[in-house]
Every structure is written in structure tokens, then in C-alpha cells.
């Protein structure tokens, strides 16, 4: 067992759930609180930063009404790690079984070729994401944490960075490589370099991937990640008919 991972990672503590059980909530009430748009107990990132919303662990009818106000009638609410049931009349528009993996002995290391990416690099980052589809990446996602990239002949060909940030943990995300440069181990190098920065802060890296992406899971496990839990990524649509009714919920 790595010194950088919890002794019982699949369990909550005696005083409450594990921070990775609801990572968006932990982020938006913790290190990412300055991003939080809130109504009642429901929080979200700005729409150009991250799509994720955060419900409390046991949402009630008022929470769903607050979510509807935040998103707006007919809008979609992406939820990370939510395994409960949506209210009657709320359409589930997307559902993907996923896995959550945590650092259990990564051989982290900085990378001399990796460059820190910032706002000026966002057009190229968005272009790389469009071509490789690693998951949600928006115009201000780069503000969530450290993003590192590798360039060849001036062009951005690979990147990885930080996304969700529950207390004590940082998610590695947006890992992608231009198809013309795959097979060179660039993604592995960037994962280990981003993880090095996370460890330097005294935090623990974690990441998510689709449960069906067995090749990625094998790669991550070979690097020193281990499976912590299964999870779900989903989106639900706010019914149009609830729009007027929920405005006065508070």
C-alpha cells in the first residue's frame, strides 16, 4: 500500500463519506469554492469552466428544485458520481458507467519536455481535445489547475492536467495525444509529471475513465493506480413544465 493512498479507500470515515464519493461537491465546497455558483445545497461550476453540477449526498425535493433553477427549464444537468434516482419526469439524457482509480505507488517524475499551459494556449488545447475526445474541456477549464503539454515543431501534440479537486485529492484529466504521435509514451510521461506536481503539494492523484475502456484501465494500473470504486457519469434534463413552479421554491 502506497503512503500516498488511504488505508481503506473504498470506505467512508466514521464521521462521513469519503471525499471521492462525491468529488464535484468536495471540490466546490473546498479548493474550488471560488468557482461555485450556488443555490441552496446545489453547486455548479461556471458553464465555461466545467459542466459538472454537485448535489448533496442525499438530495431531497428542494435540492432538485434548486438544481432546476440553476440549470433552467429544459437544460441539462451533468452529474459526476451520482448513483441515485432522478425525480419523475426528469429525462436521463446520458449515462456512462465509470471507474475511479487512485494513486497506489506511481513513479511520479517531472518531464523536461513538458511545458506549463495557460490561457494563451487554450485555442490549441481546444483543437487537440476536439480531435482526441478525452472528455469535457471548455474555454476556462485551464483555470482548474496545472496543465502540461508537449510541443513538436511548435505544435501542441499532447497534454494532461488537473480537474476536480476535493480536499487532499486532485483529479488528472484531459489526457490526450495527437493521433500522429501515439505510441511514444507521451500520455504516460504527462500523467506522471502532473502527478508529481500533485504529490509535491502533499495531495493524492486520482482519475476517472469509462468502465468499458479496459485498455486505459490496464495502462493506469500498470503505472501504479488502483481501482477504488465503480461510479457513474450522467446527465438529466430539467423538465420544461417545472420551470415556473420551482422559481419560488425558496
TrEMBL record:
InterPro entries: Acyl_CoA_acyltransferase, GCN5-like_dom, GNAT_dom, YpeA/RimI_acetyltransf
Region of interest: Disordered: 1-31
Record flagged with keyword Transferase: yes
Domain of life from the UniProt record: Bacteria
Keywords: Acyltransferase, Transferase
Molecular function in Gene Ontology: acyltransferase activity, transferring groups other than amino-acyl groups
Bias type Low complexity, positions: 8-19
Keyword Acyltransferase in annotation: yes
Annotated ranges, domain N-acetyltransferase: 112-239
Name of the protein in question: N-acetyltransferase domain-containing protein
Species of provenance: Streptomyces albiflavescens
